[in-house]
Amino acid sequence: MDFNVKRLAADAGTFLSRAVQFTEEKLGQAEKTELDAHLENLLGRAECTKQWTERILKQTEVLLQPNPNVRLEEFLYEKLEKKVPTRMNNHELLGQSMIESGNEFGPGTAYGNALIKCGETEKQIGGAEREFIQSSAINFLTPFRNFLEGDFKTILKERKLLQVKRLDLDAAKTRLKKARMADARAVAEQELRMTQSEFDRQAEITRLLLEGVSSTHAHHLRCLNDFVEAQTTYYAQCYQYMVDLQKQLGSFPSSFSNNNQSSVSGGASISVPTIPVSASLPSPSAGRGGSAASGGFSELRSSSGSRKARVLYDYDAAGSSELSLLADEVITVSSVPGMDSDWLMGERGNQKGKVPITYLELLN
Known about the structure:
Layout: H1 2-26, H2 37-64, H3 68-79, H4 90-105, H5 110-178, H6 182-211, H7 213-250, E1 256-258, E2 261-264, H8 277-280, H9 290-302, E3 306-311, E4 330-334, E5 343-348, E6 351-356, E7 360-362
Antiparallel strand pairs: 1-2, 3-4, 3-7, 4-5, 5-6
Helix pairs in contact: 1-5, 2-5, 2-6, 4-5, 5-6, 5-7
């Protein structure tokens, strides 16, 4: 019982000491230990990553499901850990209506047959859209949510603990300054050494967590590539479905009329683009090097030579086998047999290590 009372009293005293220190700092009556510049930069980058991850996540959710009521319903089902009821999307609903109306008018009529074919195509597009949304949710949205709800919450927790340790350290410094008696100064010096040690340890823990944000950026870059690939597949499927439908409708004998134009009968057909799907889609790497850059990496991997490359973004090595990079610097890269196709061996002076090709632009 006495131990619990003493523990509560000690905790209350510590809390009061922190509150006094915090208040005096706000009033400019006490000095504040500043974090080193590197740690401050890491904190700023982590906060920036969190804010933009939230924004990208929200806008992607709007893109995949524009209806806010449906998004809310899906969110509630997710929180209740229940399966979201299967419902037809807009393309599938349109397709169903076209097929039903086509059957009503008669599959043997030109109009009824055309409606049925259009409806079937719309349902195919609806299926492709469903696959695209599912792929994006798994490979893009989920990793972004995991960062916000997992890694960043851990960073936030350790950052708050660092703030507490910093207040304890500065409160100990204040008590040492105010101590007059030799015994009081000895106690204050011992307390200062202890709080300084705890602060340094917590600062190191926080720094290690914050440096892991570089790995988060690399992971999110891979997720972004997956998202673009899913979009490319989806739009290519939609394009091909519509080209096939145009060809089918173009073979129908039909007549078109309106208030300003006389009827035209016979084998009127709709012109169909002759560009193949693969040729009409932009290369995923177009923008900073395009297909030429991709080809350059392929040639480099198939040869035993080396090339100069410009670094596009800062990269912090995740281990001793990797090489840290600074944006706009020029390094020498080469391929090593057996190395993952997403990596090359980089050299800068006497330094050598693996570097990700997504951070590089080959120079002529």
